[in-house]
Write a structure and sequence with these properties.
Number of helices: 9
Number of strands: 20
Radius of gyration: 26 Å
Largest sheet: 6 strands, mixed
Helix content: 25-40%
Strand order of the largest sheet: 14-19-17-18-15-16
Structural class: alpha+beta
Shape: elongated
């Protein structure tokens, strides 16, 4: 007989977990009554990392045909469409005014629904779901196949303890996400005040800096671009030889694609010239390499800094050509006009914004560490 025992367990529990089909321990897509005249509709874009971010209040007359799942407290919404299977919702609100899309499977159980919710996020369960997904454009799993997936359950007391522990980890992740959002909103508000010059810095003697001057980018920077570099020539992790970061047009990880043994530029601005992210500007501190889908702004005087990147990001999207593949080419960037403060005030602004970025990055690292911690728990605390 197969032993169903997790690697990591609270010491007061022992014995095998019991294996059963999901459909036998929970009701999947329970029969619904009549939709209320007005309700909050939860679609596949409403949930992010287990948090209900969007509450769309609509009427029955204007509701899409997918609005069918009438929710009760402690229901679980499991997103059946790839690649959403880890972006689910534990519904802890009242009954009657929330309706979910049929893009979710609605799970209802009299047992520990919070335990089941955590179980649905384990890699083993998700892999079993993915194997059963069908379709080409939007592969998904149907309720019948979902109900047949095997899951393992301990006794109710152990379920509750595991669920309580993991819920506390989720609560910490939520608090960290809220903290990060507040810092980002604060930075956005400060930047708007700086760009409108409602917020000005003073010199060391308490005097105002000179008025900002409008100049073209080409009057301040040397405008150039990166070079082609195949992924195969990069290293995904830096080593003794490949120490220089390589940046591309992607937004993940601030455009960091890998590491290389040569560099092209130092302390410069890059922007994405082609594709969906055309116009995104970043300050690249230190020596770096960038690919051919990056334009580069070089300034020996130090005008390439966090502030200039931020003020450019506030205007560049207006100059992107959306005819076919979005583009913001070098000749267009060179002609963009923006108002520049003097270099000394720029540096003060850049230092101020960098201090906020350090706080945001600190919270982001805590989020990543906590997510990694939880992933390890999910792998070891479930069978």
């Amino acid at each position: 007989m197969e032993k169903l025992v997790p690697k990591l367990r609270f010491p007061e529990f022992d014995g095998n977990w019991e294996r059963n089909q999901l459909g036998k321990v929970t009701e999947i897509n329970p029969k619904n009554g009549i939709l209320p005249d007005n309700f909050i509709y939860i679609d596949l874009e409403s949930v992010n990392n287990g948090i209900l971010e969007k509450e769309n209040y609509i009427s029955k007359e204007t509701a899409p045909s997918r609005a069918q799942r009438i929710l009760k407290k402690d229901d679980i919404l499991y997103q059946t469409v790839r690649p959403y299977q880890k972006n689910n919702l534990y519904f802890d609100k009242g009954t009657g005014n929330y309706i979910a899309s049929t893009g979710y499977a609605q799970l209802r159980t009299k047992k520990s629904s919070k335990f089941l919710y955590q179980f649905l996020h384990t890699d083993k369960f998700v892999s079993r779901v993915l194997l059963r997904c069908t379709g080409t454009s939007y592969p998904s799993i149907n309720s019948s196949d979902l109900s047949e997936i095997q899951i393992s359950l301990p006794k109710p007391e152990e379920q509750q303890k595991i669920a309580s522990f993991l819920t506390s980890v989720d609560e910490r992740l939520t608090l960290l996400a809220q903290q990060k959002e507040k810092l980002e909103l604060y930075k956005k508000g400060v930047m708007q005040q700086i760009f409108s010059q409602k917020l000005r810095f003073k010199d060391e003697n308490g005097n105002n800096y000179p008025d900002w001057e409008e100049k073209k980018i080409k009057e301040i920077f040397e405008v150039t671009r990166g070079y082609v570099l195949s992924v195969g020539k990069m290293k995904q992790v830096s080593d003794e030889k490949n120490i220089y970061p390589v940046y591309s047009s992607q937004t993940k990880n601030f455009g960091l694609t890998g590491y290389y043994h040569e560099y092209l530029y130092e302390n410069s601005l890059t922007w994405t010239t082609d594709g969906a992210n055309a116009g995104d500007v970043n300050f690249r501190r230190g020596k770096f390499y960038c690919t051919n889908v990056c334009g580069v702004l070089i300034s020996k005087e130090g005008f390439a800094n966090e502030f200039t990147a931020a003020i450019l990001n506030s205007v560049t999207k207006r100059y992107v050509s959306y005819v076919g593949n979005p583009k913001l080419m070098n000749n267009t960037m060179a002609e963009i006009k923006i108002k520049f403060p003097c270099l000394e005030e720029q540096q003060k602004i850049a230092s101020f914004l960098s201090a906020i970025d350090v706080q945001i990055e600190g919270v982001s690292k805590k989020i990543a560490q906590t997510q990694l911690f939880k992933k390890g728990l999910l792998q070891q605390m479930f069978v």
